[in-house]
Structure formats: structure tokens, C-alpha cells
Amino acid sequence: MGCELSRFLKKVDKQVEDGACPKTCPVIPTQTLASDPRMPLTTRQKYSMLASWKAINRAMEPTGVYMFIKLFEENEELVELFDKFKALPRIDGEANDLSGLESSLELAEHATAVMATLDEGIKALDTVDVFDDFLRQIGRTHKRIPGFKKEYFSRIEPAFLESAKMTLGDRYTDNIESIYKITINLVIETLIKGFEMEDFGEISMVETIS
Ligand code: HEM
């Protein structure tokens, strides 16, 4: 009898180790095993994301500024959506000259605000409801921007990945890149869902990032 029990427990241990433990596992409660269908990252990937993000968190402003410079380099027309950037001086009036932006205090402030939002979202990856509510709310606030289209959210993906690569250097491995890709796509999908939400009440940027 004792032998049968220890054989059974060994089998369960192995299944847990292999990540193949069935949802009806009698040892670990179901809630801890059933994954949320809204979460595309595995527990291990979430852990790696949070660990890697700590380095970005220590360099929010330069990472954010680089991200926006890349966004505007690749999508010049988007500068026009930002009242505070479009008026910045351009060398010889050239539309694609972004040199004024790089040193702009306005861009540093905006980039830091957007990075703080990403930071809050990423830190909430473990609580899908909090992640979802928070980023939907941010997505929804973009409705008040004249000319903004929900498709614009996905333009941030390459710029986000390039800026993470710049900050992480050697730590930006292929594995980390694929985890950052899954994460930014989840962020973008959630922002879009928020943007698509019906309006009930006033939309304010301030209430969401305070
Ligand atoms: C990761 C994706 C994004 C996040 C988390 C995000 C977040 C935010 C936040 C927190 C603000 C308010 C910040 C502030 O007032 O300084 C904001 C404003 C804004 N965002 Fe986004 N955003 C994202 C992507 C984009 C993209 C791709 C565009 C491209 C057009 C964009 C355009 C704007 C504009 C035009 C404003 C208003 C700026 C102003 O009124 O001063 N956002 N965004």
C-alpha cells in the first residue's frame, strides 16, 4: 500500500516537473493549473519578462525617447497627431528632420508617461484582470485624439522592440525577443479593445495615469 502511494506521488511529481500535470491533478488545486485563455505567455515566460523588464525600468526615459524617435522615423505622418511635437523647429523646414525632437523636453515627458503606462501594465501581467482593465482604459483615452485610428497602436511594435534591444544589449537574446513580441502584441490588442469600447462618460488622460 505504502509502495503504491509513493509510486503514485512520484508519477505526479514527474508530471508537475514536465509541466504535463492534468487539470484534475489531486495534489495541486485546479485553480493554480488552469491557465487564463487571455494570457498568451507561459508562467516561465512571464517570469523572464518581469525579470528582464527591471533593466528597462531603470532606463525608462532613454528607452522611451528612443522608442518614439524610431516610431516617428518609420511613420513620419504620426508626428502630426501630436500638437506639442509638430510645431518643433525642423532643419531647413524638412518634414523628416527629427533632430529637434531628440532633445525635446516635451518628447522626454511624453515618452516617460507612455513608458510608465507600459511599466504598470507589464507589472500587472500576473493579474490578467488588472492588466486588461488598465490597458483598455489607456486605449480608450486615445479616442479623444483627433485623427487617431486604432490601427496606429500596432505601429509601436517595431519601435518598442528596437528600443528594448538598445537598452538590454547582450541581454536581448532570441528568447527574450520572442517574449517581448508576445507581450507587446498583447498590450496592443488590449489597447485596441479599449479603443473599440463604447463611451460611457468622459475620457480623461489624467485619470488613467495618475
Ligand atoms: C504602447 C502603446 C501606447 C501606450 C501605452 C500609450 C499611452 C499613452 C499615454 C499614457 C498617453 C498620455 C500621456 C501624456 O499625456 O503625456 C498617450 C497620449 C497620446 N498618445 Fe499614446 N500610447 C501608445 C501608443 C501610441 C501610438 C502608437 C500613437 C501614435 C500615433 C499614440 C499617440 C498618442 C497621442 C497623439 C497622445 C496625446 C498626446 C498629447 O495630447 O499630448 N500613442 N498615450
Structure notes:
The protein is mainly α. It folds into 2 domains: 1-33, no CATH class; 42-209, Globin-like, CATH 1.10.490.10. The chain is 63% helix and 0% strand. It contains 11 helices and no strands. Helix 3 (43-57) packs across helix 10 and helix 4 (60-74) crosses helix 7 (105-123). The longest helix is centred in the last third of the chain and has 23 residues, at 174-196. The protein is globular, with a radius of gyration of 22 Å. The protein starts with a helix and ends with a helix. Residues 16-33 have low confidence and may be disordered. The structure holds protoporphyrin IX containing FE. Protoporphyrin IX containing FE binds at residues 78, 81-82, 84, 110, 113-114, 117-118, 138, 142, 145, 152-153, 155-156, 187, 191, 205, 209. GO terms for molecular function: heme binding; metal ion binding; oxygen binding; oxygen carrier activity. Keywords: Heme, Iron, Metal-binding, Oxygen transport, Transport. Residues 40-196 form the Globin domain. Pfam families: Globin. It comes from Artemia franciscana.
Layout of strands and helices, then pairs:
Elements: H1 2-18, H2 30-33, H3 43-57, H4 60-74, H5 83-86, H6 99-102, H7 105-123, H8 128-141, H9 156-168, H10 174-196, H11 205-209
Protoporphyrin IX containing FE binds next to helix 7, helix 10 and helix 11.
